Amino acid sequence: MSDRPVDANPVAIVTGGSGGLAPGIAAVLRDQGYAIVLVARGQDALTAAADALSAQGATVAALSADVTDAASVSAMVAQVLERFGRIDLLVNAAASSHPIGGAIEDVEVDNVIADLDTKVGGYLRCIQAVVPAMKRQGQGRIVNIGGLTGRSSDTLSGLRNAAVAHLTKVLSDQLGPAGITVNALHPGITQTPHLDELFEEMAQDNGGTAQEVEADFVSQIPTRRLCTPAEMGETIAFLAGPGGRSITGQSITVDGGYSRGVYL
């Protein structure tokens, strides 16, 4: 570790940082006093996301890394420790935004494996890289973004989210004695640019408008509203705070009641 003094603020790494849920999650953590490290592959989009957050006067770093490459992840974590001297929270959110589905006869198995390597393998690589620093600190928080498809048979991409839940439980056992909690967060239908694109595609395929598609989904949510990335951030901030010290190994759903399963 660097000889530089430890940063006064807790430090959060958020992967998949250039889009999707990550910027909204990071904004909440920023407002909670975290120094933010956004991580993604594409530097231009990543820099734009970091600039938008740091415009509020917070400490925000943008570090390019490929979560499918262990050396790239290790180098990123080394840069974080060199600059800040600590890592308090890892939010794993890097994943492909293109679900894999369709008839099994038509599935490209290599695409499924690549999808798993990005999300599940990527989460593993990032956790491996940050755990030594968290152990030295005597505490740390890890939150893995999963997804509700892991609890349904809607699409083959649910494989990755089921694996995230299992990985989370295994690591909570391993890391709990070191003061590190590990939880999975399963977002519901959440307002992101990708969701807007999906509604447009569904409208084109089925007729009607994107607004009508959205209204149909909202009508199926007990709270009658879409979730927001900020709500995911607020849940993560709670898990990372004092109230989350005894919450570990859990798969927590934030979906307005959209999923109807009973999980004991």
Topology:
Layout: E1 11-15, H1 22-31, E2 35-40, H2 43-54, E3 60-64, H3 70-84, E4 89-92, H4 109-137, E5 140-145, H5 158-175, E6 180-187, H6 193-206, H7 210-219, H8 229-240, E7 251-254
Please tell me about this protein's structure.
- This protein is α/β, with parallel strands linked by helices and 264 residues long.
- It has 8 helices and 7 strands.
- The protein has helices spanning 22-31, 43-54, 70-84, 109-137, 158-175, 193-206, 210-219, 229-240; strands at residues 11-15, 35-40, 60-64, 89-92, 140-145, 180-187, 251-254.
- Strands 3-2-1-4-5-6-7 form a 7-stranded parallel beta sheet, with helices on both faces.
- β5 (140-145), α5 (158-175) and β6 form a beta-alpha-beta unit.
- α4 packs parallel to α5.
- The longest helix is centred in the middle third of the chain and has 29 residues, at 109-137.
- It is globular.
- It starts with 10 loop residues before the first strand and ends in a 10-residue tail after the last strand.
- Residues 1-6 have low confidence and may be disordered.
